DNA mismatch repair protein MutS (Bacillus spongiae), 866 residues
Amino acid sequence: MAKYTPMIQQYLQVKAEYQDAFLFFRLGDFYEMFFDDAVRASQELEITLTSRDGGTKERIPMCGVPYHAAPNYIEQLIEKGYKVAICEQTEDPKQAKGVVRREVVQLITPGTVMEGKGLSEKENNYISSISTFEDGTYGLIYTDLSTGESRVTMLTSSTDELLNELNTIGAKEVVCDEALPGELQQKLKERLSITLSFEQDTVVKESDESFFRQLSQQKLRITAARLLNYLYRTQKRSLDHLQPVELYAVSNYMKMDYYSKRNLELTETIRSKGKKGSLLWLLDETMTSMGGRLLKQWIDRPLISKAKIETRLNAVDVFLQRFFEREELRELLTEVYDLERLAGRVAFGNVNARDLVQLKKSLQQTPGIAHLLQQLGESETNQLAEKLDPCEELTDLLEQAIVDQPPLSIKEGNIIRDGYHAELDQYRDASSNGKTWIAELQASERERTGIKSLKIGYNRVFGYYIEVTKANIHLLEEGRYERKQTLTNAERYITPELKEKEALILQAEEKSVELEYELFTSIRETVKEYIPRLQSLAKIVSEIDVLQCFATVSEKRQFVKPTFNNERRIRIEEGRHPVVEKVMNAQEYVPNDCFMDKERELLLITGPNMSGKSTYMRQVALTAILAQIGCYVPATKASLPIFDQVFTRIGAADDLISGQSTFMVEMLEAKNAISHATEDSLILFDEIGRGTSTYDGMALAQAIIEHIHENIGSKTLFSTHYHELTVLEDELQQLRNIHVSAMEHNGKLVFLHKIKEGAADKSYGIHVAELAELPPTLIQRAKELLEQLEEKGEPAPLPTQPKVLKEEEPLSQLSFFTEEPRQEQKKVAKQDEIVLAEIKKLDILEMTPLEAMNTLYRIQKKLKKA
Ligand code: ADP
Ligand code: MG
């Protein structure tokens, strides 16, 4: 290293500590990057790669960005999941002996951005941290640095649960122990595209006790300490706005795995991954960014406590009844600024006077909002009103101290109101008196010299001057004016008395600017003390906002208040899919009922493609979710059970983006549902088994249905294009066939989108093909083939018809599908082989009679199923 120049040596020393980040190394007006950083940054940011002499033979790769343009570049890197270490000059270059001292002042990471594009207004930006413990449990914490909220929990089951939770949180970055198993690290990076960071220090500092206030369990404290210590180490500044960590339990919310959320498009759509077209998009009538963020949190975590759900619903009810008050409330809310993020920026020392004016305006809305809520006169809204803390002293302070329209800069004055501070007023008087004097001087000089065009001006270099055009110079009194500057047409002069006044004015101005800055920072410190109160105010305001949002949407979209029953009964009358309905615009959405109870646990849905099967299933799930977040539901009447979990599997045909083999994903999702669902769960299986060959798929579909029916008893909606499965209704007590009706009209297919009892009677595939305008000759040929098949009798060979399989011989009828039956037969043969091998392996002498019985039972079961 000795061969490098001292500056490059300094660079390398700093860089050694920030290996996983781009090091932005301040050199004058630029941030420079060297070596590999430079090569990669030049690619990522599309900036020119140059090189410089570093003391060695080979030149060092280098690229740089001007410091004033840096935020933009930093944002780009963060968005791509990188980290950026900002290394500043920390001494005055003029004073430096040798190389200027430089230090990293902040590490910016995807989870710690505080402003800019990386931070979307209506979305939290979470950084998370996990700790693993010897007993196999996980501690998980997540924090939004911009708002100061943190929540922590212990997870006891599998890594899947951990991944799922991280996914629900939407964490951008996870801080963990370097010893975290590589496999898990890999999963975090690849499956969730999360940026990983490491922190080994898990010691709780005494000064941070308030952050840990609610945590007594050692594991939770370790988990939280890891994250907090990481934040200190990387942010290197006050984190006063961090609120005490809140403890939560995953089991207090409705569980939905990653796939289910995605399939239901709760907060983003499958295709574009954007908000538009999602349930969140439909619901978002919030007026504040805080409310927007809370809405998303609520959608991500539906409740399972009936009491809590009903508290929300009752408040929505109040807002819904009172249209005018609600409109007024919405009006007031538009004036409320993002108090949560503001509190964060106050702690970071990043606020300007305009922010404080916004804060004042927000606070000024509070009494109005409280008054309005009280007017409603209901206990739900009264409780909210009581919790609103208007922070009056702070409002008054800001009103008295800060002008209505301050500039962006906090160092150039014009921030503090007249009358707020006596000394400041004096300076201002001095300066304005001086200015009046100067204005008067112009008049008196004109009179004295008789030059009408004489004027007094000011510029930064020469200060105040008297300007006289060249033609008039001869009129000036000898000796009185000292020439300062010559222009083409005029000369500029000063006089001793002008100079004296100027000094007074400038001094007063300088002092007043300095004083203003001092006053401003002290006000900012005062605001800091209010951070916890502002944060609790923010919480209540966002809650009010989401509740009014629910009322507003419910009215707009004609939702009704759901009721809950303990009989595991779903009774939805004229239910709709709210998003599809909204998107359809003028077209008529066809409402559908859904009825399920102890006798109808499983609905098997058939119907042609595009008839509305998927839409119907989703609308049932969305209705349940809406009800459990405390919103009204799209129906004319709805009575629902409270679901503990919702699982969905949407068929391969709809699955456009999965990288994994879609069939594998399908099976993983099915496994997930089957192994976790209870009788209080809701399962949607949409065309499961579609990703594999017909018989395979059909067999799997049937086995899955039987399994759910026999062993789980979840409320299940199962759509299928395997018409053959409809015979299951005869065998399975709690299964019912329903179908989406369609009608033939003049040989064409008309979708009615209406759910009816019973199985669909005919396959409409050819008509759909016709609608898709396949060539008429092709359609004609398909029709002929269909007729041929129909003439040969029922072409519905169910390879695994329940319990009747062995008696009938449907396979032989299938001349058209010769390929697949052969496979089927092979499979049966293979099954026999497996069983024989198993019997051969048995060590009979070592078995108890009971074991022998059990083994025999298992073998028989296997053969029956085959
Ligand atoms: P399937 O799953 O049976 O193939 P989808 O549920 O995907 O059909 O629905 C296809 C299209 O039909 C939807 O995009 C929507 O435009 C329309 N649709 C579905 N259900 C309804 C309904 N109840 N009323 C009106 N249009 C509907
Ligand atoms: Mg579908």
About this structure: The longest helix spans residues 496-529. DSSP finds 27 helices and 27 strands in the chain. The chain has six domains: 6-108, 126-252, 284-391+530-557, 426-524, 563-763, 823-865. Residues 426-524 form a domain with the MutS, DNA mismatch repair protein; Chain A, domain 3 fold (CATH 1.10.1420.10).
